[in-house]
Prior knowledge:
Elements: H1 2-19, H2 30-37, H3 45-49, E1 60-65, E2 68-78, E3 84-94, E4 99-106
Antiparallel strand pairs: 1-2, 2-3, 3-4
Amino acid sequence: MKNLKKTNNSIYKKLDTYLLDKTHKANKGKADFFKKVLGFDRSNINKLAKQIKFNPKTAMQKSTNQYGTKYEQIIKIKGNNGRIVDAKFIWIKNKDGVIKLVTGYPAK
Length: 108
């Protein structure tokens, strides 16, 4: 339960400070994708965050490094505008067992 709370906190933090932040220099248009395609921005962050959940059954292990194991997961996201789009989310399971959201972008 404690780790789940940390995972959920990582989702909100990543959305607020990176994925939905239009001014973040490194997000490479991800905020535009979430806004223009799905109708999400910081004002409705909760609606998006509730849909982003790590699922060990559908997440595929991709790599391991000194920080932990990275996973890739496709999640169907229902936009605030009603549109449904597959989005790819990258997660890391840290050495302490906590799973955190790394990034998200449109699946191809």
